[in-house]
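User: Can you predict the 3D structure for this chain?
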Amino acid sequence: MSRAFVKEPDGDGAVEELPDRPISPHPNVVTPEGLALIEANLARLHEEHAAALASDDRGALARIMRDLRYWTSRRATAQVVRPPAGPTEVQFGTTVTIVREDGRRQTWRIVGEDEADPGQGTLAYVSPVARALIGKTVGDVVRAGTSDAEIVEIR
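Assistant: Here is the predicted structure, written as structure tokens:
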């Protein structure tokens, strides 16, 4: 049957179909805090889902269902990696401090993709800077963005 003969909902009945959020092709490794973040998002979305159902808010339901699919998938594939005790090299879960050529100090914790927020001091383990840092030790010089930087602390 042609779509020309299918009645589309009018006005408030029309709901924009939302595409699924893209899922990263990388392994979903998370810190314990990252797992808690995923679970908090799921709990919040379940509450929002109940409220949207009660108010028959179809637009909100579409958004919430899309986000529930995403976070449910991320929870199902999460691999918790605990930070190492007394690390001697940069690895997942460690916090590393670098000093750039211009003297700026920057500190980041290497974390999973969903918990990364560079402005808050966390970098996704798949980011270019994190990849340059992983496996390095104090004193190593790495390319961090557009300049070189020396690793001065790992914890």
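The radius of gyration is 21 Å. The mean pLDDT is 91.
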